[in-house]
Amino acid sequence: MSRVDVKKPSLCTSEPLSQETVSRALSAFSKIVKSCYGPTGRLKQLHNGTGGYVQTTSQSSALLNGLSVTHPLLKLLTASVQNHISRFSDGGLFTAILCCSLLERFQDLKVASCMCVKISQHLLSSCTDYLTSEACGCRIPVDFNSSKILLDLVRSVLTSKRTCMLSRKEADHVSILILKAFLLTVPQNVGTSVRLGKCLYVPMKDKSVMDSRVYAGLLIETPEFDLTRMLPAKRTASSPIKMALFSVSLSGDFCNPGEGAVVVHHGVSLEAAVLDQLLGLGQRMVKDGVGLVICQKVVHPALKQYLKANQVVVIERVGVVMMEPLKEMTGSQPIPSLQCLSRACYGNLKDLQIEYFASKRFLHLIPDDPAVCSLMLCSRNETAWDELKLVCQAAEHVLQLTVKDPWVLLGGGCTETHLSSYIRHKATCIFPLF
Length: 434
Prior knowledge:
GO terms for molecular function: ATP binding; unfolded protein binding. This is Molecular chaperone MKKS isoform X3. The protein contains 13 helices and 14 strands. By secondary structure, the chain is α/β, with parallel strands linked by helices. It has 4 domains: 16-110, GROEL, domain 1 (Orthogonal Bundle); 114-138 and 410-434; 139-188 and 195-217 and 375-409, TCP-1-like chaperonin intermediate domain (GROEL, domain 2, 2-Layer Sandwich), CATH 3.30.260; 219-253 and 271-369, GroEL (3-Layer(bba) Sandwich), CATH 3.50.7. Helix 1 (20-34) packs antiparallel against helix 4, helix 3 (72-88) packs antiparallel against helix 4 (92-109) and helix 7 (168-185) packs across helix 12 (382-404). The longest helix has 23 residues, at 382-404. The termini are far apart. The mean pLDDT is 83.
């Protein structure tokens, strides 16, 4: 098939910002992020053009993920801001506004692009050097012997998002819970390398925010059963519970052989053979003294019944998200195959308890070293809960960053105003006439 138009060679221009289409796209993006910023910022509703869920937010992370950006310049700009958010979890809107403002001002200067790049690099290095220096007047050290600065830091992140609809009392309550959850993820025994634990968020919607609470260990929603009848009667309070963690399905379904062929002899039932293998696996775990079996996928009813009859608690369908925290908390190794069971794969738990909240029941896995915790987060509705979860995750990440670099900057525009005065002072020293 012949071309309608003759193919043209690729053309690269050195002044893409001077194009009118670029200016319009940049101006529209700048208005979106500016209208969300600050105490008078407005909320945005994101909706797919083909229908579906409507998201109400003012957070930069949710806003940029929901926007459909097609222009190459805006793609680069949003990717840069998203990288900033992934590293620091805060200041996304300010970063986007700053980038847009710099691009708009550089357009008005009518200077070469290479000069704009040099100016930006010089300003960035000057601001970074000043903020990390001892002479910086808006930098405060974090004292981990007191919770005041840490609570103020978390509260400043929470109260900046209006979609959460938090009162002062609710913001204080959630701030305390986030700080408690963060402290639970700090390991008690520090070796050559320090690795923080993980906090999992348990959704509880249509409830008061004041009902939120934090638990050391993991909460797994389960159907109702009598835990006292299932755990071994001879177990003492001080003896640990041995646990087996399976990443392979225990449903008895035959796995897909791919392009290979499976040969089954005459008179042999494949289902019965797999079930015998599962029951043999259960007998071995009972013999090894396993008290808890957790499977990422499904457990065969016959195997489940056999284990329950031998006082073994069985939890299935926990999902892939729970596997890494379970591994980290219990020291168990996920078992990927029915042939890979060994005593080295087992982990240990300190205790098991049943927690009731509203109409839901949770199995509370309590470890010896609570490096993993569960934050039961309550909110009035689904929209407020989604926003509150993002804010809590951002606040948790900010606390983690203070461990690496125990310094914080003043908020409320103080740091920005201070930096602006510093840059003007430096410019006056270099160019006295201005």
